[in-house]
């Protein structure tokens, strides 16, 4: 129930918002005609938006606190829709069927531009799932993931530039080289964890980018590598539209392969060892698990998917240079994992879709799109810090039958 005290607090917040945004949103000076324009409608909208936004914020916080109290007292609660979506067959089967049909007809009913955006989103789904192995399952904070993405892309670019090799040869080469670089990174960070590990991986990512930018004889420097061929289809020459549709279905197949492998990995012996290491490294060692081997496996597996998407990225854009593999790329992939829910496959897919598609479709609101994007992230982290779909820990119940 809304109290007078809450109304007063929202009114004070509304006044502060109006006061702080008044010079920017209300006053507009035209120096050419010497006219000052007063946009009072903006002030009314800001006042109403901040007032009702404050009320909504307070209401959601209250509901969150009520849920926490109920959980503390052991009251049974209905699982959230996001959890039922991944567990209830009656919900996820129709949703999966509708999604599959939509994915199949998408490139035929939308433009090449829209298809390219969807390809990018699918690529980030694979990247997010790859990093999810390292961060979500193994609990190793990795801030240099873009370096392995670059290894895959430059593998294809250099193999084509020097030897004229195509996409299908470069794809396994990129994956293998990225996995080797992952193992190479794993050696110096075996004894590191937490913030120290994050700093080392960040340094590795920056070293890779700087080498690519300054070693002109090897990587063609900031000019990059151009005219990289798109994925081939039995030597048939494809138009731009058909090549885009072909790339779209190719990325869908690779995304499905990634989902299958990561899902099987979670339930495997290696997956359980990764989760055990994330929960408690010392206890994990005490149980006889070889931490060195598990860490190496985590870095190698995570890097493999980045290398694969690096090859696809080079084939999609037909041009690569070091500016495409900055720290922002690593931060974006990490944001996808955190927003979606660490360790959750469905969460990472939804997180990638939101983070890649939302800024594109918010272009109509111009310069305010990143403001809205940031506000959404803040709201998510306050009310769902575990991510959109939290990874629910499996529990086993032993039922004893009645003796006859």
Automatic annotation (TrEMBL):
<feature type="transmembrane region" description="Helical">
    <location>
        <begin position="167"/>
        <end position="187"/>
    </location>
</feature>
<keyword id="KW-0472">Membrane</keyword>
<feature type="transmembrane region" description="Helical">
    <location>
        <begin position="91"/>
        <end position="110"/>
    </location>
</feature>
<feature type="transmembrane region" description="Helical">
    <location>
        <begin position="370"/>
        <end position="389"/>
    </location>
</feature>
<feature type="transmembrane region" description="Helical">
    <location>
        <begin position="246"/>
        <end position="265"/>
    </location>
</feature>
<feature type="transmembrane region" description="Helical">
    <location>
        <begin position="142"/>
        <end position="161"/>
    </location>
</feature>
<feature type="transmembrane region" description="Helical">
    <location>
        <begin position="38"/>
        <end position="59"/>
    </location>
</feature>
<feature type="transmembrane region" description="Helical">
    <location>
        <begin position="297"/>
        <end position="319"/>
    </location>
</feature>
<keyword id="KW-1003">Cell membrane</keyword>
<keyword id="KW-1133">Transmembrane helix</keyword>
<feature type="transmembrane region" description="Helical">
    <location>
        <begin position="194"/>
        <end position="212"/>
    </location>
</feature>
<feature type="transmembrane region" description="Helical">
    <location>
        <begin position="331"/>
        <end position="358"/>
    </location>
</feature>
<dbReference type="GO" id="GO:0015658">
    <property type="term" value="F:branched-chain amino acid transmembrane transporter activity"/>
</dbReference>
<feature type="transmembrane region" description="Helical">
    <location>
        <begin position="116"/>
        <end position="135"/>
    </location>
</feature>
<dbReference type="InterPro" id="IPR043428">
    <property type="entry name" value="LivM-like"/>
</dbReference>
<feature type="transmembrane region" description="Helical">
    <location>
        <begin position="12"/>
        <end position="32"/>
    </location>
</feature>
<protein>
    <submittedName>
        <fullName>Branched-chain amino acid ABC transporter permea se</fullName>
    </submittedName>
</protein>
<dbReference type="InterPro" id="IPR036259">
    <property type="entry name" value="MFS_trans_sf"/>
</dbReference>
<dbReference type="GO" id="GO:0005886">
    <property type="term" value="C:plasma membrane"/>
</dbReference>
<dbReference type="InterPro" id="IPR001851">
    <property type="entry name" value="ABC_transp_permease"/>
</dbReference>
<keyword id="KW-0812">Transmembrane</keyword>
<dbReference type="Pfam" id="PF02653">
    <property type="entry name" value="BPD_transp_2"/>
</dbReference>
């Amino acid at each position: 129930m809304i109290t007078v005290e809450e109304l007063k607090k929202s009114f004070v917040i509304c006044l502060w918002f109006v006061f702080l945004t008044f010079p920017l949103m209300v006053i507009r000076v035209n120096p050419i005609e010497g006219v000052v324009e007063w946009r009072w409608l903006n002030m009314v909208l800001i006042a109403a938006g901040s007032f009702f936004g404050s009320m909504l914020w307070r209401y959601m916080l209250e509901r969150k606190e009520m849920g926490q109290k109920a959980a503390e007292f052991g009251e049974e609660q209905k699982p959230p829709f996001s959890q039922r979506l991944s567990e209830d067959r009656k919900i996820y089967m129709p949703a999966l069927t509708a999604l599959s049909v939509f994915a199949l007809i998408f490139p035929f009913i939308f433009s090449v531009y829209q298809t390219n955006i969807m390809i990018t989103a699918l690529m980030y789904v694979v990247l997010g799932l790859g990093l999810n192995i390292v961060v979500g399952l193994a609990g190793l904070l990795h801030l240099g993931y873009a370096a392995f993405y670059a290894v895959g892309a430059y593998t294809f670019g250099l193999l084509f530039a020097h030897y004229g090799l195509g996409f299908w040869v470069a794809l396994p080469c990129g994956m293998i080289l990225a996995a080797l670089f992952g193992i190479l990174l794993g050696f110096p960070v075996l004894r590191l964890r937490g913030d120290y590990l994050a700093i080392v991986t960040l340094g590795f990512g920056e070293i890779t980018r700087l080498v690519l930018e300054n070693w002109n004889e090897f990587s063609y420097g900031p000019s990059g590598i151009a005219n990289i061929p798109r994925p081939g289809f039995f030597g048939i020459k494809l138009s731009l539209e058909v090549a885009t549709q072909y790339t779209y279905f190719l990325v869908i197949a690779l995304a499905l392969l990634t989902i299958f492998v990561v899902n099987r990995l979670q339930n495997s012996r290696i997956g359980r060892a990764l989760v055990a290491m994330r929960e408690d490294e010392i206890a994990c060692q005490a149980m006889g698990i070889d931490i060195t081997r598990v860490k190496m496996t985590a870095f190698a597996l995570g890097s493999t998917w980045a290398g694969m998407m690096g090859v696809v990225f080079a084939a999609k854009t037909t041009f690569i240079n070091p500016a495409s593999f900055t720290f922002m790329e690593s931060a974006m992939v990490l944001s996808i994992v955190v927003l979606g829910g660490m360790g959750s496959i469905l969460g990472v897919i939804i997180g990638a879709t939101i983070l890649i598609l939302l800024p594109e479709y918010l272009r109509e609101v111009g310069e305010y799109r990143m403001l809205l994007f940031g506000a959404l992230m803040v709201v998510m982290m306050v009310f769902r810090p575990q991510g959109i779909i939290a990874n629910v820990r499996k529990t086993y119940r032993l039922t004893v039958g009645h003796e006859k």
